[in-house]
Each structure stands twice: as C-alpha cells, then as structure tokens.
Amino acid sequence: MTETTGAKTRTRRGGKGLKIERIFTTPGVHPYDQVTWEKRDIVQTNWKTGETIFEQRGVEFPDFWSANASTIVTTKYFRGAVGTPERETGLKQLVDRVVLTYVKAGKDNGYFASEEDAEIFEHELTYALVHQIFSFNSPVWFNVGTKSPQQVSACFILSVDDSMDSILNWYREEGKIFQGGSGAGLNLSRIRSSKELLSSGGTASGPVSFMRGADASAGTIKSGGATRRAAKMVVLDVDHPDIEEFIETKAREEDKIRALRDAGFDMDLGGKDIVSVQYQNANNSVRVSDEFMRAVEEGTEFGLTSRLDGSVIDTVDARELFEKMAKAAWECADPGIQYDGTINDWHTNPETGRITASNPCSEYMSLDNSSCNLASINLLKFLREDDTFDVETFEKVTELIFTAMDISICFADFPTEAIGQTTRDYRQLGIGYANLGALLMATGHGYDSEGGRAVAAAITSLMTGAAYKRSAELAEVVGPYNGYARNADAHKRVMRKHQAANDELRTLGSMDRQIHKAATKAWDDVIKLGEKNGFRNAQASLLAPTGTIGFMMDCDTTGIEPDFSLVKFKKLVGGGSMHIVNQTIPRALKRMGYTEETIEAIVEYIAENGHVIDAPGLKTEHYEVFDTAMGARAISPMGHVRMMAAVQPFLSGAISKTVNLPESATVEEIEEVYLQGWKMGLKALAVYRDNCKVGQPLSDGKAAKDDKKAENEAEPKVEKVIEYRPVRKRLPKRRTSQTTSFAVGGAEGYLTAGTYDSGELGEIFLKFGKQGSTLAGVMDAFSIAVSIGLQYGVPLETFVEKFTNLRFEPAGLTDDPDVRMAQSIMDYVFRRLALDYLDFESRSFMGIHSAEERARQLETGSYAPVTSDSGDEDYEDELETLSQSAAVKPEPKAKKAEKVEDNSGAGAADARAVSGEIHSSAELMEQFAGKVNDAPICMTCGTKMRPAGSCYVCEGCGSTSGCS
C-alpha cells in the first residue's frame, strides 16, 4: 500500500456537500496510469470432462492480479456477449462502469461540495478497487451501469402473513429474487399451526406444508439457469406449535436420501432423482427467545402459543426440545439457531417493527421487506512492511467506501416496491472485511487466542465506528434516514451500547492498543455527531462470507474465517497450477524472531506435511499461530464461537459463519455450542459436523445412462448362425499379465489384465469385495463375460465406449493420477484399460488422456506426443514422474516453469508443481489430512469447493452456493 497523501482531516463538511480529500491518489495523475497493465487469455475448462466452458482472449488486467482473480472477474462480472463489440475486455471498463455510475448519482443527489470533490472521489474509489483494497458485493458488478435493473443488494428479507394471498405472494417475490441470483429469508411464524382451526372449521395446513411449495419453486428456478443456486433462509419461532415438525423436517429428508442412494437412485446435486426429496433448497433456523433459553438451563416446561390469540395450546420440556434441535443439526446441519433477545436488543428501529428473520447466510438482520448492500475490505492491505497496522488509512478507506454504499441506494432498483420503500426509508448498509485470518497469522496472533480476539475486536469496532461517524456526517449533508425521527432514541441507545462495548475492550499488545485508541475516538464522534445530526443509515456493518469477491481481492481467507490451510492450490498465468505455502507464514515467523535458515526449514516442512507439528526449530508455544480451519491442528469449535463473540458487539448485523465439528462430535457438544452462543451474546449460529450429510454431492450431477440398459447393450449377443461364426482365440497357457490396485470413492479393488504374446488384451479379472460375497461373484461373472468377448474378437474400443461414463456408486475421486474422477467402478476400469492398451488416436477420440498428456496440453496446446531434444527429454521425465505419483514433487526446470506472482499474502513462499489430480485447496488438504473434506463439487467447472462463511465457494470459477 502506498503512503497516504493529503491533510489529516478526512472529510470536511461543506455547505452543500462533502469535501473529499485524497488518500492514495496524486493530483493530475489518473489511478490507471499508476498501474502496469498486461493482456491475458482467459480459458476455463471443466477438468472432469475437458470441455471448454469459457474463453476470452486478450483481456487486460494489472500485472499484480493473480490468474485466478482475473479469471473469476472475467467470467463472472464482465458484461456483454463474448465475441461481440459490447463485451467488456478489461478491468478498466468494469471499474469505470461501476464507479462512474456512483459518481453521477453522488453529483445528482448533492453528496459532493464541488466538481473537484467528485473527481477525487472517483479517483480514490477507482484506486481502491484496482488495487484490491475492497470490493462491492456481486450484484453491483453484475448490474450497475448496465441496461439491467440496477440491483445492488445481495441480501433480502421478506415477510408472510397468515393468509393464502400473502403465502402465494411470498412464492412470487422469492422467485423474482432467485431469478436475479440473490437470496432471501423470512419468518413463517405468523402462519397458524397445523394444530389450529381455519375460519371454516377445518384444520390449518401449517407452515411446514407451505415450505414444501416454496422449496419446489426454488429448485425449479435454480435448475432454470440462474448464475448460482437459489439461496433461502426459513425461520420459525421456538414457541410455534409446529416447531418440532420444523426441527425434524430436514433430518427426515436426509434419511430418505440415504435410503434412495443405497437403492441406486441418482441423489447427487443436479441428479435426476434428487428432486424427489424435499426442503433441500433452504437453510432452516429456529428463533429462540431468552425465556426459552432460561427454561433450557433450568429444565422447566415451555409453552407453545396460538398464532391467533397468543394463548398456550401445548407445553413441552424445554431441554428435550433443545436436544431435538441439536440432534437434528448433528444429523444434517439443520436447523441453525438465532437468538431473538440479543438481535432485538441491538435493534435501531424497534418503533417500526421487530427483527424477525435474516438473509440466507444469517449476517443481515433487519426489518421485514428490506434489503442490504454489502462491501468488504481487504484487511491485509493495511499491514505495513514493518508489520504495523495503518490505522489512519483504514479509517479513511472505511468512510470512503461507506459513502459510496449510501450513494448506491439513490439509484438502486429493487425486486418489489415494498422492499424498495423500506430500503430507501432506512438505508441499511453492511460494510465488512475479509482476510482477518491471514492478518492475524502474519502478525503472529493465534486465531483462538486472547491476543487474536483483541485485534479482531478492535478492528471491527473501528470499522463500525468510522462507518456510523460517516453516517452522521452524511445526515448533515443529505439528511437522516426517513425512519430516524421515529426511532431516534432507540438508535442512539444502540450507539451507546456499541461505545460501552468498546470501552470494555481490553487490549493486550501495541497493535490492538493503537487500533482501539482510534476506535474510542471514532465512537466519541459518533455520539456527538449523532446527537446533532442524526444518522443517514439504520444499519452499518456485518460480516459476510466474501466468497467470490474474496477471490477478486486475492484474499487468503474469507470474512471472519481462519486460514483454511497452510498450503494452497494456486493457478498460474498462462495455465498450470502450483502447490504453495502461504506468504503469511514466513512473514509471521520473521516477526516472531526466527532466523532466515530456520524459516526456510519450517516452510519446507510445511510444504511436505501441511502442518507445523514437529517442524524443525519451531517453538511449541508458537504452534497456535498456525492453527487452521482444517488439518492436524484444526481450531476447536469453541475457538470459532469465541472469535464470533469477540466481534459481535461491534456489528450492526451478525456474522456469516458455520462452526465446524469433527465427525466424532456428539449431540451434547452441539447443545453446548448453541448454549454458549447465547451466553456469549451472538445473534446467530450454525454448525456442521463432518460427513453428516450422507447425500452430500461429490459429482457434477450430469445425467447418466441407465445401468441395466447399458449392461444389456454391452452384453454380447449369441445368434444361431451356420456361417461366419466367430472363432474364439484362446490365450496361451503361460501369458503376461499386470495387476493394478485402485480406489474409487474410497472403495478399493484390483484389476488384473492378461495379454497375448503380441501385447493385445485378452482377459481381465476384477476383485472388488470379499471372496464369496455377492459383489465378488458379480465381478467374477462380469470379468468372464468381458474376457470371452475379447477372445471372440469384440474390440476393446467397443467395451470402452459402452462402459465409460456409466454411473453408479461407489463413485468419486480415485487414487490414479491418470483417472482423477470416476463415475463408477466400470467407468474407472475401462478408462484404465484404454490408457494401457489403446493407441493414442483411439482413446483421444473418446477424450481419454493420461496425466502426462494433459500436462503437455497445458504447455503446448496439444495432447499429441512431440519429438524432444535432450533438454526437453529431461523435462518430460520430470512430468512423467509427476504423473505417476499423487505426492507433491519439486517444481519443473525454470525454463519450463510458469510465473508465480506475489500478491500481498497470496503469493508463494515455497512453490511446487502439483500432481494432476489436485484441483483446489480442499483437495490439497485432503492429501495432507488423510480424510475427505465434505464439500460439494462445483457445478460449473467441476472443482472441489471449500467452505466460506455459511456456504461454499469454488476457487476455480468463483461460483458460490448462495452467498456473494
């Protein structure tokens, strides 16, 4: 980050608008002129199928942007049809499209004191975006400055009343939001229960039955081609009479998935049979009251109340109901929990209405029929070379971004008039940050440590204080939000609560002490300016998952999350990929006083092992600095809860974060997490136990051929013929054979192939299962049938064509670098046979290539073998060695190695070539940890996704499971 320029005062309030002063830019120099630009070819393929899914050549990006960031921005955010003049061709066009729209709206609505201030605002915003200092949420990049509706919000909250008209309107409004690729949440507690009567005398259906229709609608729109899966949140109050049915809904459906999958149905995400299972498109959360949580502690009964008159119509044992919540979450990760008392105690607009629901990821909590515009700051950009945090610049940037976010509401479009009206009246914003985990590691703070939590809390307090300070300044210039007068006392009360929490914050080091000092000054200004001017915005801050935009900013970590792992999978400019050790690690080691020789040894150890346990020269008391979300030293569940509790008092909204538990976790442990979340003052919490979702998709869900039909097609037909009868060519008594061990989806087997003296394949034997088992018998029979077919002259190509792409369980990742993913045992076996016994042209026609050939295609653009000189032969030998091992090997010769960039923490301290079967950080962690990371395969590019907040994000193309 460059040194700041300009006066100490960030912004002086002018007579008619803000007086903007410079942070990064220089008068007379456009930010684009301070950057070295280069053109890149963006080609994206599905590594499972080899299909090219996107191609745009000659796109322009700064030279310090990573290949992954430029790929994701090009594929996700550039507008216009590829190959047409309307298509955006570089980052400049994208940034200009957005920034100039903001500047125009700011001028039109009186935000700036002069034209010069508007120009400075334009330059500072442009600089910050180009240099990856922050990013707006995805809808801004999708829509702003285009002919589409100018939707800028990613988070929506709807409402539904106890009437059929309202319920049907809920379906319609939710569908419109899903159509645009955003998500919505709502509370169904107003709908009367199935234990209550209708006015006609009949029994009501209850909210769970209406969830079924909404779920089907979301699934239909999802499959209709939205940019990402429909994301939705459904909330039910704990005192609703149907609460037990709601709690157990998804757990029962998970049992169905297990039964259907075991019966051979296609239950993968996008599979043809998954649609028969209900309630899979929503996150479910129970809204618990303080009264209920006290009843849980005391072990007393709790009343379930009528939706019509509030009378108690049933009572339950609070502790038993709480246990059912935890048990359902243990089984399928739903429902999550939302703490109603805490949420509404920090509500700035109680006179308008209660907060009853959240967006799908639980970070935005506000009034019904409202929306929130988000933006996130890259914290690592404020860490100076001397490892001090640039407090002043962070505060200035926060105010700049917040100003832009408020301007967006002036020109934004909304899916419904009710949402538009509420958003314009209350102007809810959600500024947040990413790269906290990387910042803590780089500065030598353990994520689950008092020092780490103190730094995180101080940064969050300063960010929200600076945002509300700017909100009060904006209120003087363009007026407070329309609902402020009605809620003024409540809003100022919440500001004092934030200030009191800041006063109680105890610092432990010079870094957090400096930040806390600035935060204290900011909150003093908030109280004074708010008393005088009021506030422009009802809400200011939250912590979102920052999935796609985190990759856009080349962040190591997303949102509030710790580092996913100490090693990462990194794409390179021009193609190829590397296994890298995070640059934050040597930086942290240097800060802690280790010598260069020791740092090199530790980094080398991490590159080989993926963790720091027993690393040479590393003190055991420093292990905690390198604890990660996964791996040998994974952060404990309560470590995640404690971090959330540290920053929650300094956020207007909540935190998108899932607390991950090991597969061995008990129901009681989940109960404890939920209970402690309430006691520590969280607003919401979700848990995920490893491998709890037995139907978790691990393949791309493409339609497969019917197994039985495929077998019938492949079975040799025996006809009664007199002439031209095929003659069986038997193998010699002694013949050459080779045995290959393999694993498909974790299930192990052996393939033995015997050949004629000419080397032609003549028989196969498959062992898969215990001798005498039904599976072993079926495999023996199948092997004999294929062997006889081969000996009667059926070409191997015919078997390969018939049995590859055949889909049934077990399926998934294999231990064979040449066949990285198999859709079934048959798919693997015949791909392996094709590679071993078919010529290049035959199998190339069927799209079957070895790891060596795929590596060659990345370098030369062709799979075909080439004649090499002696130097290239050495390099080919290295590639061959790489293709024959799943282990990480040294980087190829410098003359062939791709460029590896250093991107402010995203670069490589120790870079190595990776085997062809590794495609993401999730898979790299699987290699080191020795266990499967329970995450879905990306439906766009086939890459294994990784957790980000409450959802999953793809490192290959930036797709998310519902969050921006």
TrEMBL record:
The keyword Disulfide bond applies. GO terms for molecular function: cobalamin binding; cobalt ion binding; nucleotide binding; ribonucleoside-diphosphate reductase activity, thioredoxin disulfide as acceptor. Residues 153-688 form the Ribonucleotide reductase large subunit C-terminal domain. Residues 890-902 have a biased composition (Basic and acidic residues). Keywords: Cobalamin, Cobalt, Disulfide bond, DNA synthesis, Nucleotide-binding, Oxidoreductase. InterPro entries: RdRp_reductase_class-2, RNR_2_N, RNR_lg_C, RNR_NrdJ/NrdZ, TSCPD_dom. It catalyses: a 2'-deoxyribonucleoside 5'-diphosphate + [thioredoxin]-disulfide + H2O = a ribonucleoside 5'-diphosphate + [thioredoxin]-dithiol. Residues 882-912 are annotated as: Disordered. Its EC number is 1.17.4.1. Residues 43-132 form the Ribonucleotide reductase class II vitamin B12-dependent N-terminal domain. Gene3D superfamilies: 3.20.70.20. Transmembrane segments: none annotated. It comes from the Bacteria. It is an enzyme of class 1 (oxidoreductase). Residues 731-836 form the TSCPD domain. Pfam families: Ribonuc_red_2_N (PF08471), Ribonuc_red_lgC (PF02867), TSCPD (PF12637). PANTHER family: RIBONUCLEOSIDE-DIPHOSPHATE REDUCTASE (PTHR43371:SF1), VITAMIN B12-DEPENDENT RIBONUCLEOTIDE REDUCTASE (PTHR43371). Catalyzes the reduction of ribonucleotides to deoxyribonucleotides. May function to provide a pool of deoxyribonucleotide precursors for DNA repair during oxygen limitation and/or for immediate growth after restoration of oxygen. Belongs to the ribonucleoside diphosphate reductase class-2 family. This is Vitamin B12-dependent ribonucleotide reductase. It comes from Ornithinimicrobium humiphilum.
